[in-house]
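Researcher: Before we compare anything, I want clean individual predictions. No alignment, no superposition, just each chain on its own. First chain goes here; please echo the sequence and then give the structure tokens.
Model: Echoing the first chain and its structure:
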Amino acid sequence: MVIFPVIILFYFVTLSPIQNYYQRSAKRTINYHFEESRTSEDNTRYLIIETQNGLVQGKLTNALNKDVSVFLGIPYAEPPISILRFKKPVRKKSWSKVWKAKYPRPPCLQPKLSYQVPFNLWTTNLKSSEDCLYLNIWTPLKLTNHTRERKSVMIWIHGGAFTDGSSDVRYYDGTILSAFGDVVVVSFNYRLGVLGFLNLNIEQVSGNMGLYDQLLLLKWVQENIHHFGGDPNQVTIFGQNAGAFSVGFHIISPLSRAYFNRAILQSGSPLYPQVSEDLNFYFERTNKFVRKIGCLEEDQMLQDKPEQVLDCLQVKSAHEMVKLTEDMFEGFQPPFGAMVGNEFLPANPYEMIRDGNFSHLHDILIGSNKDEGSFFLHWTFPDLFTLDNPVNFTQREISSLVLEAFRSLPPPGPKLISHFFIPSNL
């Protein structure tokens, strides 16, 4: 699912019967620094509020005859560049001037993929950047110095196979959802691909940094969302594709549990088979990458000198590194992604789900769309599945295509998927 299912989410988030749990949150004191102004050029209304890091300026807009306060491009972490590259995110330092949160910031660096997305579903006009850890907020309250009302909070995690994607996609604009659902909506960027998921098997670079970005964002929301009229005790995280994978990981991760109490998984699961726990397979790809970028000789192994490799990678061009990963895809399998083995995902997701430590969750909503997988046919077989000319296939041909499309998955994955579509093929 790509577009927010507004009506379902409105019911799911705001009409829960367990309201007594949230009454205690009203006791927290909110200190607003509020200021409203207009510009003579376009009559835009701006407002300034105070956060933990400093003053932030947003703007007022209107949707469905309701005022919505919009804040775009608030930093939640220091730029992950230079010596912070590949490492866990660092909290953003406070600023002394007013932060202009009036326009979206660039998406995180990502490769230029070979497939063409129909109808430009996930495109953005912004160029990607390594400095990308920013968030956006839409709140249905016209904030004033006297605002005390609290709204439910929904945090959107974008998809893209942990390789591409952005919060700055027109379908992810939270204005309508905030106005119609009467909720505070948050979206954000997190590191992708090699910059977000490289694992050198050392403490400083142990993988899953994109997920640690998400974790820091959840903490930021807990500490700051009351300034925007949100209730930190009534937080729902939701996402699609890799965003749904991420939601599932946060459900089972011991590091995330304190920061939300509802979850929505749209077309994704933490059990997706690309979560790697095979270090030998992973380091084979990582060795290939660091050799291509010139940080390891052909006769050397990453495991023998990981610190020297890290020093080398931190001075390389980020754009060059990302570009080198473009030809490292194997079917649906991106070269870098979520891994099992560090404190965020200490065990296989199957085992963590089996243990069932979900007492922090009140509700989970899981869904998918009929025939949504057909989108990927054009990606995987662009010459066979064009957008203009439908083609008929025999059962044997379909079986071969399914096996080919999922060849990168570990067995018996491809065969089980083929059996799902063609039961006689097992």
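Researcher: Okay. Second chain, same rules.
Model: Second chain and its structure:
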Amino acid sequence: MTADAGRDFYKPRGIMAIAGGSWVAVPNDGNIWQAGTPSDYNNAEGDGYPFERATHFEFFSPTGYYPTNQAPLRDDIGLRMSGSDYQRPRYTLQNVATDSPWNPWNSFEKPSFNIYFNSDYGSDPLDYVLFTNYPVHKFQHLRLRAGKNDNDNPFITDELVRRLWIDLGHVGARGLFCSMYMNAVYKGVFNLTERIREPFFHQHYGSDASWDVNYSWNWVDGDATAFYQLLSTLDTDLTVAANWQSVTNQMDVDNAADYYLLNTYCAMWDWPGNNFVIARERSTGPNSRFRFAVWDAEGAFDVNSYYNKTVSYNTISNDLLLDTNDWNNLPRIFRRLSTSPEFRLQFADRVNLHLFNGGMLDDRDPDGSGPLKSHFAQRLGELVTEVGPLVLYNTGSSLNTSAFDTWVARSEEHTSELQSLT
């Protein structure tokens, strides 16, 4: 990406500019930026169009990655910082203009970005085959992910889980990995992926209607009216056929079963109280049912010891059934669904489909020492091949697969947990 360094990227006016102020300790919760004088400012905390900068974007791929007649991508875009309400005031970004690469072990020094394609700059939307063997090629937004909790090594966790989610038969955000340069200076390895907002659903569902999109507690598109109607329906007696039919009219139950199954299989950290997407088309058609999507899934597979969710962790008992706070909607939805014998049967069917007989989450070796690999091993292997050289260059270490290897070696433990509900 190229732009004016001081106007668009760094100090004094760029999207990563932090001038003055100081970082004040929050008890047991890191440090947050605070202004000390009226002239202090922190653009990294800003959101929305005023904090967007015009940037030239180019994307080059290795020989053979795309068909030989596909040209490199060159376009003008709007670029914004990305970050949660938690992360933005904790960004430090003191050496972003000079460091190469940005510190891969510090998520507050290596930011993520949102890329906007609109007619103010260039394409509206981008029409480019970014992901091979993929049905979508038009993009209004993209996210350039720094990795957050998995920002150095192995760096593949979120993308692995999102690809598994797509493999289960659902709409998800596809990504790829790249080296990122700003004004020809190398800044590190990033995960370029679709961004889940209303335009994402328009492309995947062939829709031109408005959508309700809840992104980790925020209705980033639409509103919560239909969602509260769903919660009210879930609170009825779901052993009554008419009530259960009303639930199935309002949400895709197979999608919900697979969503809880995958997050349970991965022992997802910082979930279910955070990091989720649920969306519906604002219509009365087939897309009007609520569906989940996976996002911010780097908390999977206990890749960091502070997750404290090993392969033996029981997500169903500890996080879904034990959490009885009405404000935490994901456990509430699961608890109410599990009161239905129909859902329990459907959940059992999904467990059998995906975790046994060569299913997408059946991570057992299919032929011992033979050449065949489980689907999980295939997905992991392709990511190691794709990202391994970038991780090695960026961190000086080979891509670490030990967390995933442990998961596979002890697969019976998470399989038995899922069977407990069936």
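Researcher: What stands out in the second chain?
Model: The first helix runs from residue 5 to 9. Additionally, Residues 178 and 190 are 5 Å apart (CA to CA).
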